[in-house]
Design goal:
By secondary structure, this protein is α/β, with parallel strands linked by helices. It has 18 helices and 21 strands. The strands form seven sheets. Strands 6-5-4-7-21 form a five-stranded parallel beta sheet, sandwiched between helices. Helix 3 crosses helix 5.
Length: 484
């Protein structure tokens, strides 16, 4: 894996260098009439402004950062697989996809069959191929990774297969005979969609209620734009709904527009997959100042903005946190033209939840990572101008702040220190701030299941949410069948 990472990140470093060169060349543009240079916003413009980079540079920055394999490249990549018996990559996959089988199907020229193998276990296999941290899951477990330091490109091969099938508009599954049973699903994110699709396949009618104007959850609103381009999240949702039997209602939030008690009364079963709406506080004085915002909101806005040139970004951006959200916010700030972007994490770099590859991706983009520091104050008048940090020590008694502090200039701060469950219905048992569930997704309330980020047991990954939604659907189906 080291060889692959070095190759990828060397390419990224060159990519971002070219961006810097094109940016410097565009700081002044000739007036077509006078031939003189007309100054425009640039990475050096003070404050928070839009249009720091030319439109063409922004288009390049937010293009697909991992181009798909073509048919020949896929066959060559597939030929590297040993097709192991008891393959460790299967065990490492949260959805237990039969990876050697689908790669063999690609190698033998049947990518549609490969796609069905993938989608039978992970109905959102197309998105997971784009966003799943394969370098810490299936590819890390690959035998060739252990032997050569260069695993089979499982994620890219999965994308090749699923994209090939979806491009044909083909849905490989058929709906069973209607059972007459109705199931309510709250949340149209990965867990809710996976649960709904599996239940629809079994013949049940499913009604999804989602608080957002679009379905997809974090796939639509919470990942870096360059990881999923060309409105793929919505295309995948529309493709998934081809199974039939699923009704989707937007703008319906649990506790505001939909009540759990009513769902329990009106439906045969309920699945909760509404994710996490709250964002943890910094607990630092001054965090209420303007231009201190949640990283998830910044990413969501960016995802929904077609013209990136209209998005304002600071010259000096500080991102507080150590996970994938922090990396996505920081890298995209840099891609929008911020001059200085710094991620600050309270513990050691080895404890960051963002994968090593994502950390290297961030530094290749020009993002600075500072570890073992925690925010203690946000300085400025009405708006932030600096953030003060104290160095930390990770001791046997927990994390402690030292007396040594430093300040970072910041005209924009993004908080990426985790999310929390808000508005959990009464009667649900919580554990660690999330809905407590058993291995099948059952909650403390009879007839109510939960999965994804709002429930215990997950690790905040799209692929894990899909597995939890799928498995809960199987248990719901077994429960309803037993009552027939």
């Amino acid at each position: 894996m080291l060889e692959r990472k070095v190759t990828k990140n060397s390419a990224l470093a060159i990519f971002y260098l070219l961006i810097k060169i094109s940016t410097c060349a565009s700081l002044g543009q000739k007036n077509s009439k006078t031939g003189s240079l007309a100054l425009s916003n640039s990475p050096l413009t003070p404050g928070i402004v839009a249009g720091r980079l030319p439109v063409a540079a922004l288009a390049d920055n937010f293009a697909d950062h991992t181009p798909p394999l073509d048919r020949h490249e896929a066959r060559v990549a597939a030929d590297r697989c040993y097709f192991c018996h008891d393959a460790p990559c299967i065990t490492a996959c949260p959805t237990s996809i039969d990876i050697p089988l689908f790669i063999r199907q690609i190698a033998t020229g049947t990518p549609d069959a490969a796609a069905k193998t993938i989608l039978a276990q992970n109905i959102l296999g197309g998105m997971c191929a784009r966003v799943c941290p394969t370098e810490t899951l299936c590819e890390e477990a690959c035998v060739r990774e252990a032997a050569e330091g260069k695993p089979v490109e499982i994620g890219s091969l999965q994308r090749f297969a699923t994209d090939t099938l979806m491009a044909k508009g083909v849905h490989p599954f058929t709906r069973a005979t209607p059972t007459g049973r109705k199931v309510a699903v709250v949340g149209a994110g990965p867990a809710g969609l996976a649960c709904a699709h599996r239940l629809a396949m079994k013949g049940h009618d499913v009604v999804i209620s989602d608080a957002r104007p679009k379905a997809g959850g974090l796939n639509e609103y919470g990942i870096a734009s360059y990881k999923s381009t060309n409105d793929f999240a919505q295309a995948e949702v529309e493709w998934l709904l081809q199974i039939g039997g699923i009704t989707l209602h937007h703008g319906k939030a649990l506790g505001r527009d939909v009540q759990l008690a009513d769902l329990q009364k009106d439906y045969d079963a309920v699945f909760l997959g509404m994710g996490l709406a709250g964002v943890n506080a910094l607990r630092a004085g001054g965090e209420e100042k303007s231009n201190v915002q949640n990283a998830v909101d910044f990413i969501a806005t960016l995802r929904q903005t077609a013209d990136k040139a209209t998005l304002p970004i600071g010259r000096d951006v500080v991102v507080i946190g150590g996970g994938m959200t922090a990396v996505d916010a920081a890298v995209q700030s840099k891609l929008l033209g911020a001059e200085n972007v710094t991620i600050v994490y309270r513990r050691g770099q080895e404890k960051m939840s963002a994968s090593g590859y994502e950390q290297e991706h961030a530094t290749s983009a020009g993002v600075r990572i500072v570890c073992n520091a925690a925010p203690v104050a946000v300085h400025g008048d009405a708006a932030v101008s600096e953030v003060e940090f104290a160095y930390t020590e990770d001791t046997a008694n927990g994390l402690t702040l030292t007396a040594q502090t430093f300040r970072l200039k910041a005209d924009q701060v993004f908080k990426a220190i985790g999310q929390s469950l808000t508005g959990a219905p009464d009667g649900l048992t919580l554990s660690g701030g999330k809905i407590a569930t058993d291995a099948a997704g059952r909650t403390s309330l009879a007839g109510v299941w939960a999965g994804g980020d709002c429930a215990t047991g997950g690790d905040d990954l799209t692929v894990t949410a899909v597995a939890e939604g799928r498995d809960a659907a199987e248990d719901i189906h077994a429960h309803l069948s037993a009552r027939a």
